[in-house]
Each structure stands twice: as C-alpha cells, then as structure tokens.
Amino acid sequence: MLPDVKVFSLLSIGRHPQSGRARRAEQDARAVELGLTLVGRDLNLVHAGSAQQDDSVLRQYAGMGLPALTLLEQEENADILPSLAKFLQNNQAGIVLMGVRAESGESSGMLPYLLAEKLGWPIVSRIADIVDIKEGVADVLLALPRGQRRAVQVALPFIATLDNAASAPRQTAYGSGLRAKIEVVSSESTVDDLTLNWQVSPAKPRPKRMKVVKAKTAADRFKAATAKLAGGGGQVLKEGTPAEKAQAIFDLLLEEKVIR
Amino acid sequence: MILDWLLPTLILTLLVLAGIGAVRRMNMWRAGQAEKVDIIAGLLAMPKRYLHDLHHVVERDKYMSRTHVATGGGFVLAMALVILVHLIGIESKVLSWMLLGALSMMFCGAVFVFKRRRNPPSRLSKGPWMRLPKNLLIFSVTFFVLTLPAAGVLPASFTLGVMGQWFLTLVLSALVLMSLSEMLFGMTWGGPMKHAFAGALHLAFHRRPERFGGGRSTGLKPVDLEDNALASGKVLGVAKPSDFKWNQLLGFDACVQCGRCEAMCPAFAAGQPLNPKKLIQDMVVGFAGGTDEHYAGSRYPDKAVEGKAVGEAKGGVDHIITDGLINPETLWSCTTCRACVEECPMMIEHVDAIVDMRRFLTLEKGETPNKGAEILDNIIATDNPNGYAPASRTHWAADQNLNLMKDVKKAEVLFWVSDGAFDMRSQRILRSFVTLLKAANVDVAILGDEERDSGDVARRLGDDATFQSLAKRNLATLGQYEFKTLVTTDPHAFHCLKNEYGDFGSDALEGVDVLHHTTFLNQLIKAGRLQVEGFKGGKVTYHDPCYLGRYNGEYEAPRELLASLGIEIEEMERSGYRSRCCGGGGGAPITDIPGERRIADMRMEDVVSTGAEMVAVGCQQCTAMLEGVVEPRPVVKDIAEILASQLIEVHS
Amino acid sequence: MTDSFPQILRRDPRAEWIARNRLHPLHDSVMAANGAEVRGPSGLLRKNPHVIGFIGPNGIKRIDRANTSSGLMAGKKRSSTTQDVELPLHQVIDPTGYIVVVPDMVGGRLTTHDKDILGLGHSLIKEYADNMAVVAVCFGESKETQFELAGVDRLIHLSSAEYEGFSPEARLAALQHIHQIYQPKHWLFPDSINGGTDLASRLSARIGERAAAQAWQVSIAQTVCRGASASLDIKRETPRILMLLEECGNAINETRHEVLPLTLDRFEMTDTRIEDNGLVDVDPNAVPLAEAEFILSAGNGIHNWEQFHACAKALGATEGASRVAVDDGFMPRARQVGASGTWVTAQVYLAVGISGAIQHMQGIGQCDKVIAINTDAGCDMVKRADLAVIGDSEEVLQALMALANERKGVLLDDALPKEENHVA
C-alpha cells in the first residue's frame, strides 16, 4: 500500500469482439486491477464521456470493489483530452493507468501520449506490472512479445498503459457495482472536428496475401501449382528409431523457429 | 408419598423450561428475513404432511419407518397422557391403560432404535444421538412403572419399608428427570429431540408447500434485485444466517442428522469438501451462535481443501457465513443435483440454501471461483457461456433447412436449441433430433440467433441478475411468436423454461407445453408418427439426468422410448429418483473444486457394473461429462441419437 | 528456401514413343517398368490406380489421363546450375523529399512487416510521381545485410549507446531532430508491439501531427484504418504520420537500392526520466497459454511426468495438457487446452499422448503446426497433425530432449555474446 501516491485508472467503454456489445474494456479493467493492488480502495476511477442512460458498464468497473467513480461529462464526439488533462492536474495524480487502445471509436491509442505530452509527464506503454514505488521513482515491468519482460524505472508522475499480460482483472460484483456512486463532473467539451469528415463503415475483411511465386520458367510455374502445400495432410512417421523420429520433430521445430 | 407432588412438579418444571426454550428458539428463527406463510393453513396441514409426505420418504427405509412410527407415535401419545394422568392428575383407569399401551409401543420402537445405534452406519451422527435411545427406553420404562399404580395394577400403597420407598423415589425421580430433560428440555434447547419440535413446525411453514401431496417445486426463488441491491445494509443473496428467510432457518433446525443426504451426495462421495448434513448443521451453528464442537457426524471431506477441525468453525447470526463458518469451496462443490433434497425425510432444501449463499459470493463479493468469472462475463456479453459470436448460434443448422421463428412467426413446435448449438458433440444430438422431427413431419421452427442462454449456469453460479436479465429477454422474444409446444434437448434449459421463467410476469409461455425431447419423442412414437426398428446392439443402461428426473419427474418417457426399440434397460443400482449425478450440473465443471475422484468417473463405474455396452442419456451435459471418462468405457449416446439411428424412413 | 531454380524435366522421346505405341515389342516392358499399365490375363489393359498420378495441391490425387508419357520422366531429372541475377539498381539522385520509415528491426533485422512498409513507401512515391527517397531510420546494432534489396534508398543508422535497449526518449529526440532537418513527406511506422506504435505515438504527440493508427490501405490521398478493435474501417485523409498494419504494402523484390547513409549532426538530448534496467528472465511456463507460441501438451499417454516437465524446459516450451491429464491431477487446471479450457494460438502445438477429443481439437483450431506423438496411428490427433510420430512417447521425448540440449551446448559455445546483443 502506497497511500501517498494518488493513482487514477481511466475507464473506457469496451466492446466485446464477438458480440460487439459494451463491456468492461479488457485492458482498462487490468488498469483498475493494478490500481487496486497498488492502493486498494484509494484508487480513483475516471471516465470521460457522455452521461449515458445505461451506466452498467461503468458499474461493472466499480463492482471490482470501489465505492465511487468520477464521470467527466462530455458531449458525444468531443475531444476528451483537455478536460481530462485539467482534471488529472487539478487532482495531483501521481500515476495514471489505462489500456493501450480503446475497444471502440478511433482506438488510435494516442490518448495516453497526448496526455503525457500535455502534462509534460513520461509515459511507459504496455506495462505488465508496477513492482515498487520508492522516492518518486517506480519500478515497472514492460510486457514484450512472447511473454518477455523488461524492467524499467520511471519518475513520478507518469502515465502507463497496460498490456494484456498484466494481471487479469478481478470479477466484478453486481451488487456493489449497483450501489457505487457515480459523481458526475460537468466539464467543457471540445469538439473533435477532424473526425467529422471521416467515413466510418463496418470493417471489410482484408484479403489474405497470396503466396506469390516468382516463376521464371514454365516448369517452375507447374511445380508451384501442383506441389503439395505444406500442411495439407500430415506426414506420419511409423518406422524408425526414436532418435530419428525426434530428429524429424526437432527439424520442424527449427524450421518454425520456435527453438532458438 | 413424595412422588405424588414431586412428579407433577418435575413435569411442570420441565414443561415450563421447554416452553421457555421454545420461545427462545422461535426468536432465533425470527432473526431471519420475513416470508409470507399461511400460518393457520400450515398448522392445519401439518399432521397430513407428517403422516403422508414425510412418511413417504421415510418409507424408503422400512425398518426405520416402522421404528419411527412406534417410537415417535408412542411418545407423542404417551406424553399427552402423562400430562393428563400425572400432571393434571386425572384419575381414570382407561387413560392409564392407554398410557401403558402407548409406553409399551414406544418401548418396542426404542428397542429397535437402540439396536440400530449399537453399530450405526457412518452416515449417522453420533454424540448426543447415541444417548437418545437410552433416554427413550428410560422414559418408557420409568413412566410405565409410575403409571402402574394409577392403572390399578399395583396397589397405591404397596410397602417397601421407609428406606425402600426413599430409594425407589430417588431412583424414579432421577430417571424421570433424566428422560424428561432429554425429551422436553432437549426438544427446545437443542438436543436431538429438537427435530420433533422444529420438524413439525418446519412441515407446517415449509417454504415450498407445493411439494406436499405429491407435488413438485424445484425452481429457485428469484432474488429481489430492485429492493435489496439499493437498500443500505441489505445484500443480494445470503451473507449471514439472518439473511435467510425465517422458515429456512426453521428448516435447518428440523434436521435429524440421519445422513441420508450425505450417503447420496455425489460431491461427498467424490471427496469434494461438501457434506450436506454438516452444511445444514453449520447453518444451525450459524444462527444459534457458537462453534460446531458438538457435531458428531462425518465432516467435509478435506483431502483436497484445507478443512477445519471440529470446533474451529465459528458462527453467529450476524457473522458472514463464509468467514469462519464454512469454506466457500464447500458451497461451490455442489452440483445442485437435488439428491440430498430428494432423500431428506425432513424435506429440507439444501440446494436453495447453497445457491442463496453462492449469490452473495458472486453478486456481492465477485468471488466465483476458477472459470466462473470468465463464464459469467461471457454470458453477459454474448449470451452464451463460452463467448462465441451470438451471430454464429445457428451455424450448426446451416444444412438442416429449419424454419426460423423470425420468418414464420408461428409453428406447432418451437425447438429450443440451447447452448449445445456451439458444441460440436452436442450438435450431433441436435441433428439427430431434427432428423426425427422431420421424419415425423412436425411443424417445427427454431429461434435461431434470437435465442439466448437459458440462464441456468448463471443462476446456479449465483448470478441471479444475469439470469433474470436473460429470462426477461428470452421471454420477450418468445412472446413475439405463436407455438403450442416448446421442446428442448437440454434438461437444464427445460427446467429454467418450465419452472423458473414463471416468476417474471410474462405470459409468453402461458398455455405452452414445455417438454423435454424424450417426452415429445415418446408422444410421437405412441402416436405412430415415427417408425423405428428394433435395436440390435448390446446391453443398454439409462442414466437419468438430474434436471430431467429429480427436477421434473420425468423418469418414464426415456424408458418407454428405449423400450419401443426393444431395449431392456439394465438398470443401475442408482437410477430413477436416486440417480447419481454426472457431475456436470450447477456449474460444478466451471467452479471445478478438486476432490479425490471425479463424479463422472464414479457414474461411469455405475454404468460399467451393469455390464452395459452403451449408456443412453437425455442431456448434452451428461453426454459431455460421461464421454469425458477415459476410454475404454461404454458408448455414451443421447436417446435422440439412438432413435435416429433406428429410424425407418417412410417415403410418402 | 531450397534453390530457386528447380530441376528441369528431361524427356526421353524414345521411351515416350514406345509408350504411345502399343504394338512396339518393348511396349510391355517399358510400361511395366513404369508400373502404371499392365495387360491383364484376358488381354485387357489394366491400370493400377495406386501407382499412377500425383497428389495435387489440395492433397487430392490427380490422374493425368491426357499424357501417359509424363510418368516415364520420373527420376530422370537433372539438377540445373544456379545463376544469380543482378537486379536493376534504383537510384534517387538529389531527392526532392523523403518518406521516412522507422522499422522495428526485431533482432537487428528487418521484419516482413518492415519490408512491407518500405515497399509501401515506394508505392507512395510512385503515386506522387516525384523524385523522393525512402529513408530508413535504424536504432541500435543492425545485423541486416539486405537493406538494398528491401528498398532502402537512404539509411540513418543511429547506433550509439543511448539508443540501445529501451530508449524511447532518446529515439524520440532523434526522430524529432530528423523531422526538423528533413521535413519528411510521411513518417511510416509499423503498428506493432515491437516498439513501432510506441515511437510513432510519441512522435505524433510531440510534433502535434495527428497520426493514423492501424492503417491498412494507404494512397497519397486517403487512408483506411481499422478502428473499434478492428470492427470498423475509417476512411480519412492520409496524414503525415502513419502506423501501418502488416501486409499494408508489397515488399520490394525487383530492384536494388542505394542505401546511401545520411548523417545527423549532433543535437541536444533531453534528460531522460525512463531508465532501462534490461530484460528479465521469464519462465516459459509463466507465459499465458493463450499467448504461447510453442506449446508442449501432455495427455493421458504421458506416464513419466518428470521427464515431460524436463523436456518442456529443454525445448523452452510452454506446458499444456488435455482435460484428462488435468482431471487426474497431473497438471493444474490453468494448463488445460480445449473448448472448456484455454483456446490456444500457438505456432507449434506438440501433443504428446493426446488422442484428440473433439473439445480438445476445437481448442487447438488456430494452431499453425500440430505435431503429434502417439502410440495410436488412428487417433484424431494424428489425423490433424502436420507431423505425427507413432511410437513410445517416453523414448521420443528422451531423444528430443537430447537434441535440444545438444543444440543448447552448441549455442553456448559460440553464440552466446551474439545472443545477448540479439536481445538488446
């Protein structure tokens, strides 16, 4: 517990990849989880957005064990950056946690960077954990691909975005979420006019890149067209010594570059 | 003679003490939440409930039922007469002779109780229960002796000499005191005889009066979300003993610790940390306060989970139950198979209590173990437990040419597909069933992607909010269409639709026959709409799914269907209402509490012991659980699959 | 890759002629040698369908009935000599502008993602019809030897110590400096977890240019980006800074490029508030199962669990298990693969002693390569596997472990220092 650091977790409305329904955003929920492990119920939750009729998603965040959360009221299509930056500065935030990218909207992942730039704070992206905070410096673990980690030290105050490798969020409890207080703070909205002339449509499936065969001769082309594709119908090794069989497996592992 | 005034005094004193105890005990029950009960009607119905319904259950053990009739009946009669003869002092030979008769009957019963207690099976509690037969014997003998003069068998003043008289008086008073302490004082102050007092009232004020007179009431009661969630100091589900309804507390007190539930519980047999008897006793400890030090039965199996030694479990009426009284793992071990409820001679509702406490853990603490949280999140976001795209629900039926309700609006039969639609194994059952429906030319339609999870898993995992939301949305969808019959291959969905959706004020299912597919197929076969040829495979046994059998009383249709194929079922020892669970209910595979063995393995052993080569089931969950047993093992097939393979195509 | 010039088929006109001419005295023997066509006892031609034909691209057997002679050429191949073709050199003299690509350079080499983006850079230049050059900015040590084939016209290579490891602040300062000096027409970054997104976002925030993220269709006028967790396409004007998804362009493959170095004069570094303490050792088993790229999975057929764990360690594989292995208590529940456990996405899934229940097969549906070790050649896992080994798992695992350890020994001997750089 580090009572002298004010930790804020920023919340967004997530989107379930299969159903498209609103939900706790996966990474933002991890930001709440990390905040809860750092400072417990002293964690501050902030959502900047329009005050919706249905606040069930915000309550799902609160249901992770927090009695209240702050809603910075913004109009639809507003650029939430100015009011959020002002809010964080006014509240002397020490650590601001959030997901890498929103699950809805533009999801450019720029908000944390713009906030950091505006506030003049350092930012570390895709962290897995905050191990320790001492004398204004935090020991942070960055999540790298394939489960690797990098240790980094950052000076407070800072902004961090959470990778999916961070600890999974705890379950949300319906009852306590329902009882949580949502403090609505009205704040000025700045309209994001750049987005106005964007054309938004449901995602088209991207064409898979064809395997282009650079064939110089007819024989080449024939071979490329008739050769058995790798993987279609497997090879079965029945005969041979265990060592030979193991060698066959090992060769495939090397070919797939999973053994380095 | 001293006894002339000592005996009535003793009886009176103990009656008064018992009365005080009764008031005190009732106040304990009253710590529970209010629940509307028709007191007068309940009390009036009580004797019939006792004589008919309770004895119907006790009858399963003939020895015990006769013993109990003799002992219990004898005692009640004797006690009433003792009050008349010895307390009020009515001098009537007839009454005295009647009393002697009652006492003799009680004596005979008590002898059998005594005999049984000499080498009791492990399911029976020991401790104070071991002294009960002795006190029963003492009571009957002592009062027999004391009544002899009143009956005129012995002269009122036969002489023994002064010393002899004193000695006799002393001994008799001591015996009277001993037996009456047990029988009267113990009855209301927590002795074994408590079961008679609390049990009688429990029968009168039972929370599910529909169960009496051969009825069935198995649907869980909904949580009042509006009132409870927002009111301060209230919680969803049961956190403390005082959060139970008062008549639930009363029900716990009715327990006779006979351990029949323990003997039937699949989780207990699998070595998971659940023992329904101990659970009920812990509930008693909870609302009465104190520790479980007086409990003298088998404990929760604790090989896998750190268990508490006897005396360590502490509770109080306002203490959080899972905080020192019982481990949450105990609650999550339950498969909600209702074997304990079916077996309980006192008609205690174990499953209700367990789900009530689970509700608190899930809705208030967010502590559904293992994959529970993930599954619930999925159900909330995608309306199915595994998080598949809702738009892919009908993919299984791409080649089935099934009508969608959305298009036809109206059909004779609505086929409720349930979440088996996403599971490749269950899809085989679905396809078989569709084949049969088509062969019988049934006008059938499905909801397609409009269908949602029935909410069964969410509800058993304690998330009643999600269940209610699903139920209401499903009912709204169902309400748009016209159909006479709703059929499903999933007994869990069947149970929800039939028994639990009624609580949400919708008329979508009014006048609709909600049927399990075995019932429906049986109707088709009987009506001659399906032609099947005899089954020529090997021996077949049938596994009763809990949610079809115990929950809905459908034991016959599957058996008749198999018989129509010429199959003579090799019944398992535990079948019908005593069928052993496959381990797949109540979210148990999701919460996945470790035990010493798997319930499905035990059930497959039951199957193997019949020598059957195939086990027929009527539930996709049972199919999945039983097929999960490592081969070699008998083949597992849904009845729809067996039937479809024997179908004779009639070309019109 | 095997050599790019395939073996040329050599025809034997005489044999073909004999094969065509059924009256030729040698016809029978030639055909018999080929094994395809035999005259049966009644004098009818018998074709043995098992020996003729070839397996087509879909794994279906194809019998080429039009050309009976092609089968005769089997085995009569001569390997051709390989020749290197010098690709034409693409030169940019006095460029009028620059498109700057900041490749990820994972392990010091260009990734396919990087190459696609370099290719995209050139296609944008082609669209502009301008004399612009593609500049690659590389940080840290580079092992890449083929910049010229990937389309790098100019290279800014910043290899001093402050850019090593995790150094977003120093790199940002450098990019900002490049921005001031060269005023690039576009900044192209891979939108990747290997650092591309991070740098792009930092630069975008610093110079106040609104970037397009997750872009996948880019022309000089318009860009299509994915949004809302890849459920939306956003069409917008092409901005200056682009974070690009994989396969956003086609890698250069028909030209060579100059790779002329561009130098940067000294510039002032801002003070750093992020300090890199280096990589942390991670146990492969700490990698979440769903993310793991190589899974060694155990089923009912495993009897020597110690050996299994040792083998997973030696191979550096994440451990998985079938439901039965978990139910029997040999593996924790979190390791269960399948419909009711974890859905895995491994590149290689090595299933040992798993026969392949349907729920398990569902769970490994997204795996790229499946290898099975099993005693039962008829089980579903073997049918699904790209490579199946029938035999005793214990022996095979033992041999596999020996191979892995042997290779480790070799690596330790000569490649250890390089390996460390590779990581940085």
Topology:
The complex is a heterotrimer of chains A (about 260), B (about 650) and C (about 425).
Chain A: E1 7-11, E2 13-15, E3 22-24, H1 26-39, E4 44-49, H2 56-62, E5 68-73, E6 78-79, H3 81-90, E7 95-99, H4 111-119, E8 123-134, E9 137-143, E10 149-155, E11 158-162, H5 174-179, E12 181-186, E13 190-191, E14 199-202, H6 218-226, E15 235-237, H7 242-255
Parallel strand pairs in A: 1-4, 1-7, 4-5, 5-12, 7-11, 8-11
Antiparallel strand pairs in A: 2-3, 6-13, 8-9, 9-10
Helix pairs in contact in A: 3-4
Chain B: H1 2-30, H2 39-58, H3 62-88, H4 93-118, H5 128-150, H6 162-188, H7 194-204, H8 225-230, H9 246-253, H10 260-264, H11 266-269, H12 276-288, E1 290-291, E2 314-315, H13 328-332, H14 339-343, H15 350-365, H16 372-382, E3 403-404, H17 405-408, E4 410-416, H18 424-439, E5 444-446, H19 456-460, H20 464-479, E6 482-488, H21 491-500, E7 513-516, H22 517-526, E8 540-542, H23 556-564, H24 588-591, H25 599-609, E9 614-617, H26 620-627, E10 635-638, H27 639-645
Chain C: E1 8-9, H1 13-20, H2 27-34, E2 37-39, E3 45-47, E4 54-55, E5 61-62, E6 77-78, E7 89-90, E8 97-101, H3 112-128, E9 132-139, H4 147-150, E10 154-158, H5 168-182, E11 186-190, H6 196-207, E12 212-218, E13 222-227, E14 232-237, E15 241-244, E16 256-257, E17 260-261, E18 274-280, E19 294-298, H7 305-315, E20 318-321, H8 323-327, E21 348-352, H9 358-363, E22 369-374, H10 380-384, E23 387-390, H11 393-414, H12 416-423
Helix pairs in contact in C: 1-2, 5-6, 7-11
